[in-house]
Amino acid sequence: MENSPFRERRAFPRFPVHLALNCFDPYLRKEFQTETQNISAEGLCFETDEVLKLGNFLEIFLHMPDNNEEIHRIGKVVWSNMTESGKYRIGIKLEEPKLKPIPIVLRIINHQRKY
Which of 31, 21, 36 minimizes the C-alpha distance to 52? Predict the structure, then answer.
């Protein structure tokens, strides 16, 4: 058995999916737009210029490209790292209900193949 300092703590796989999203931070009373870097059943990651406080809850609206459906979730900021470009990479843990990432990925692939 390999002795590695890294231990994967995620219960669900992440999919490298770029979906447009709108976020509303009720604490800052601010709305912003960005896109996901990846998604899973219980979380997502995105980059933003906004400084978001750990523990804050956000309203998140994911925009599906195939039919403009909006998927609404509430998520909690669980980590934040500054990137070399000066943006913030944000990790979100989603509240219930969980996302179904495989159907989302398949819809995106199908949409991309059409266009």
Answer: 31
Q: Of 26, 81, 29, 33, give the one whose Cα is nearest residue 59.
A: 26
Residue showing tokens 């609404």: 72
Q: What is the pTM of this model?
A: 0.85
Beta-bridged to residue 48, according to DSSP, are 88
> Residue 113: phi, psi to the nearest 5?
-65, -35
Residue 97, amino acid? P
Question: 48: which 2 tokens?
Answer: 């933003």
Q: Which residues pair with 96 in a beta bridge?
A: none
Domain covering 20-114 assigned CATH 2.60.40.740 in the classification: no
- pLDDT tens by residue, the chain, 115 residues: 456 565 656 678 899 999 999 999 998 899 999 999 999 999 999 999 988 999 999 999 999 999 999 999 999 999 999 999 999 999 999 999 999 999 999 999 899 888 7
CA distances from 99 to 25, 33, 38, 39, 103 (A): 20, 20, 12, 8, 9
